[in-house]
Amino acid sequence: MKYKIEILNTKSETNSKFQIPNSKPSPSGRGGMVRCQWVRVVWILAFLICFEVGSLRLDVARAAWAITGEEIIKKVDANMTFKTARTEAKMVIHVDQEIREKTMIGYDRGTDTGYAEFLTPPRDKGVKYLKIKDNMWMYLPSVDKIIKISGAMLRQSLMGSDFSYEDALESSKLLEKYTATLISEEVVPLTFREAGELVAKQRRCYVVDLTAKVKDVTYYRRVVYVDKELFVPAREDLYAMSGKKLKEMTMGDVRKFGARHYPLYMTMRNLLRANSQTEMFTTKIEFDVAVDPKVFTQGNLTK
């Protein structure tokens, strides 16, 4: 329905009339004024109703999120960090139609100390890595030399994969370097092993935005999709400060080890590389095992 507003300005009378088509104005002009007042009332009531509904929705959302982004990430860290661990893993690198496989063993102590040794293929056998806090060394048996990885080398590909040396160096708990904000919920696929088979399930996840609060970070922003029940990451999108998405990581094959749930499968896609993806299969893992401190020394690299 169309409305028409007429402003009448005469020497004898100044009046405003709000006329509805097919209606008869009051001879005195009061009918138009009454109708204007009623329209104002209707608009005010509509505004109040919308405001109350909006407030109710906000309250419902807050009630549904009886947890903060920081609390979610703390639970993730509790699942993903450990005192010590020994792992056996297989790395599968896909580049165009080519597939390359590598196997390795690794030892970790806390979040900032790690050792990895490649076992296959023959050309990579004996290549070793040592990580201590923000330092990394690589041993190349072909030249019998230890090389410290630093500077621009950190951004290079790790053994031709979609992971970089910087990715391997990341060790701090996320909340030490990022501010966490819960922004939404989404359904995300996550795989579990049932009766020896991997089964994909649609899982409800918290979506947590992590923004860097320090300068020395590999990725300025991370968006993490965290399983609401198990508090394991199902997916992570990694961004540069410019807002450009750099990498996509997914996780799966979630299994229970004591009180923790831990994913044994991971994929990484470097979006700056065409037709490339790296899969990481953890074939065996042991938590809180005794590890000889000599493993985490440069002397062990040359053995």
> Kindly state the mean pLDDT as a whole number?
85
**What's the CATH H-level superfamily name of the largest domain?**
Lipoprotein localisation LolA/LolB/LppX
- Count of DSSP-assigned helices: 4
Order of helices and strands: EEHHEEEEEEHEEEEEEEH
CATH architecture verdict of the largest domain: Clam
Protein structure class: alpha+beta
Count the strands?
Answer: 15
> What characteristic shape results from the CA principal axes?
globular
Low-pLDDT stretches: 1-28, 51-60
Rg, Å, rounded: 31 Å
- The CATH class of the largest domain turns out to be Mainly Beta
CATH fold-level topology of the largest domain: outer membrane lipoprotein receptor (LolB), chain A
Q: Please state how the strands of the largest beta sheet are arranged side by side.
A: 8-7-6-5-4-3-15-14-13-12-11-10-9
Q: What's the story with the biggest beta sheet? A: 13 strands, antiparallel
Number of domains: 2
Approximately how much helix is present in the residues?
10-25%
Alpha-carbon distance between the termini?
88 Å
Q: β content, as a range?
A: over 45%
